[in-house]
């Protein structure tokens, strides 16, 4: 099997691959790889596809969007706030443990 350069893939295939990469990684890492990747990641097409894939819009979406990248991040933030309305970071949120000591219940953080 011949091994080639990923940049030799058709742009449509690269865009499809990028729809599966987390948006944060696209902007912080992938966009810096080369000018081709930067240009593809900046395309409206990619961010509209990501919105479709995440269910933020449907195929028949007809409302104008000024910036699909911004729209994507705002919708993903909205989606996350619906699941975590206090915007708590589960990694840093204190956990409480209950301990029973001689009939009394102690709560510890």
UniProtKB/TrEMBL annotation:
Transmembrane segments: none
Molecular functions (GO terms): ubiquitin protein ligase activity
PROSITE patterns for the chain: FBOX
Residue ranges of the region described as Disordered: 88-109
InterPro entries listed in its UniProt record: F-box-like_dom_sf, F-box_dom, F-box_only
Segments forming domain F-box: 3-50
GO cellular component, one term: SCF ubiquitin ligase complex
GO biological process terms, semicolon-separated: ERAD pathway; glycoprotein catabolic process; SCF-dependent proteasomal ubiquitin-dependent protein catabolic process
PANTHER family in UniProt: F-BOX ONLY PROTEIN 44, F-BOX ONLY PROTEIN 6-LIKE PROTEIN
Protein name: F-box only protein 44-like isoform X2
């Amino acid at each position: 099997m011949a091994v080639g350069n990923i940049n030799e893939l058709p742009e449509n295939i690269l865009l499809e691959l990028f729809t599966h990469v987390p948006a944060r990684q696209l902007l912080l890492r992938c966009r810096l790889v080369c000018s081709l990747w930067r240009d593809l990641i900046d395309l409206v097409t990619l961010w509209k596809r990501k919105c479709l894939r995440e269910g933020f819009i449907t195929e028949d979406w007809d409302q104008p969007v000024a910036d699909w990248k911004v729209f994507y991040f705002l919708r993903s933030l909205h989606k996350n706030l619906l699941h975590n309305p206090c915007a708590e970071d589960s990694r840093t949120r204190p956990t409480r443990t209950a301990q029973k000591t001689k009939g009394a219940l102690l709560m510890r953080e």
